[in-house]
Design a protein that fits this description.
CATH topology of the largest domain: Spore Coat Polysaccharide Biosynthesis Protein SpsA, Chain A
Helix content: 40-55%
CATH superfamily of the largest domain: Spore Coat Polysaccharide Biosynthesis Protein SpsA, Chain A
Distance between the termini: 30 Å
CATH class of the largest domain: Alpha Beta
Radius of gyration: 29 Å
Number of strands: 22
Strand content: 15-25%
Amino acid sequence: MRLCLTSSEVAPFHGWGVGACTTHSLRALRDAGHDVHLLADDLPGLRAQALSALPGIHVHTLHAQSLHHVPCIHTKRPLEIYRRLLDLHQRHGFDALLFNDFYADAFHVLRARQTMSHFAGVAIGVILHSPITLLRRINRQTECDLEVAAITHMERACFRLADVLLAPSRAIVRELAATPELQSSVPPESSPRVRIVPYAYDAALLRAPNAAPAGSTPRASLDAPRSEILFFGRLERRKGVETLIASAASIMPSHPALRVRIVGVDTDTAPGRRSMRGWLRRQIPPGLADRFIFEDNQPREAIAGLISGAAAVCIPSFWENYPNACLEAMSLGALVIGSDAGGMPEIITDGVDGLLFRAGDAGSLADALGRALRDPACAVMREAAPRTVARLCDPGLHARQIVAGLEEARPASRSVGVASPARVGVIVPCFNLGATLPATLDSLWSQTRPPDEVIVIDDGSSDPATREAIDRLGHPSLTVIRQHNQGLPRARNAGIARATSDWIIPLDADDMLAPTFIEAALHAASLDPGLGVITSHMACFTHSPDQPELEYVPLGPDPEVLRVLNCVSSATAMVRRELILAAGGYDPEMVAFEDWDLWCTLLARGVQFAIIPQPLIFNRMRPNSMLRSMPLMEQQNLRARLISKHANLPGDATRALRIMLGESCHFQRLWFESQHRQDAGPPPLRHRLADKAHQWLADLGLAPALKPITRALFEPASFEPRA
């Protein structure tokens, strides 16, 4: 099988959680004889060391800054992945594609297959590590903004559209099914779309050069007194480190030599989004602070040494999937004490190869810690632990399970959709836009599948040049309607009433369509006859559509987000005429946002939407456009009307409120920062030096490799987004 795995983390270059899982899987599949490709971020050292670190694996990297014109951070990476994979697939012909779940890397690949038949016949699998939506719930991060909401929407779409979900534990499937934002998209564990595939694990990846093989620790070392409990991992709320602190503190009077070492990067997941490390320090009882040692991330060989010297490695999480830290510690012969939440009971058999305690129960954990410090039987558990990992995480078995899941899920190649016999009409309202109208109509006459009818509505233009331009129009498919000025919604409704086509495309008189828009939209309709609205990405330009300044990437019909902003499309989309008429057409009182209003109505009626992940709509940005010329108070009035009108949209209204609050805080923060810059005068020297260094690296083409160094030199430390 020829397959490609996409990952932002690859050990040993970045990430010892998902990164290690990625590298283990790549090696297992390679050793099983498959043609294995990796598409990864341009990680420092990856291209230079790929041959030595990942021999026999074809390594490809994402093109840095290739989508600088896409403003939305949350959609940029999946879009870059899709376009890079499309190029790679044309050259290599993949049988299967594998993606991690978090940040929805597969989103645009799946959207392209759904609408454009790209990757037809290719099995697409999503590996269930722990999606961002789930981690935020367990971390009790209830705040939300548009980026967070978008990530949830995209992860949900990936779970719904993927051919197979590869879960290392049964616990992750059950937990996702119980997560309100995701449960409608995750099939049950019994579904043929779900395969339980424990991670592959090879301790050689993590072993220091001179270390003994896994499980070969001398017996004398196993029996030696140990007095340190080790935790290593990200300091997040979900990791349950406060339970470890409370339980260890409770037994320290009877174990005067006991120390707890807490190793990991800080995060802002403590209550109030404060430092988790600072919050944990405040949980330590007075007089015991010197017995809790906090350290930042350590090199993996140092971690291996800490594991070997600890009485036990504690994983006190409120929930875990199939933690790599547990596999790493057990493979090195450590006694692991894990909580019974999530997938750890699928790894540890209590009293046989490790110890389990009730998640969140400090008393239960204290009992397990006491046993680790005094029970001679724990030495036998340490000896059994590496054998357990070798049995559960055998690389050969892992490769066979992945390939079997992909082969069984591989869809039959779908033939290219037959051209639909449906009629397509384009509605073009025009008010004083005679200068741009000819280019708009030329884009229609240039369609690879021409429209069956084009209706131009002169909405009482007062500009003589516009009236003359409309008078000169002539085409067999063209109809002109003249009316006194009634506003954009009524003008569109007049055109729709006159039309006889099955599908309607509203198009503003200053916008254009790419030559393949109608053909592509009809192809999408042929792939899914249940679709009612089909649109695409939009290239925004000022002077020429050949020189777009940004690419608008619609998120899609998310009911919570749609309460806050139009996340579906501009007015330009191919919509079934019967659906527009059944909805009552465009609301004449919505003198702006009338398209947003219609999308809300159609979504509430259960209409299905699709978005083609290519910029097939050209939007002309004009400083004097209708919306830009509208006073903010009028816009606020219309948005308030829209929210009130669609109060019964499906979804969680409180989530929409949290999104609004998040965006409000975001803009307040930007305002305060701008005021601070004005009050503070010129930026600090380190900022100016960093800006110059970044620009210099970009000019030389060295930014991807050396930018982390300039950050370390000139910029303050910040929290890492994810281990």
